[in-house]
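User: For this week's homework, look closely at the record that follows, marking any run of repeated tokens, and judge whether sequence predicts the tokens.
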Amino acid sequence: MTYATDILEHHRAGKLRILASSGPKRLETLPDVPTFAELGYSGMDRSSWMGLFAPKGTPRPIVDSLNRAIAAAASTAKLQDALKTLGLSAATSTPDQLRQAIRDELAIWAPVVKESGYSAD
């Protein structure tokens, strides 16, 4: 997988052309690059994401406290600006939304991994 941040300067310098991005909307750092959906390719709206995980059994009040602290940090101008320079943005969710996002990703990628024949053994 290639991230826009890996090739952003080459694109800006005209050394290569990024044809499309796979996110649901255009990247703020690459407003001239259309999404696959805009080009007529459906089902390509995948974005990378990260999550913070706690050990199983972590009490819910602690999970909720961590979630609030992360959301507060993610909303600061300092973090938003730092991420923007990398072509990234911060989006937060609840623990339940993260759990559902993982289920959604597994539903999409488990068949792909199975069909590839990949084994972690």
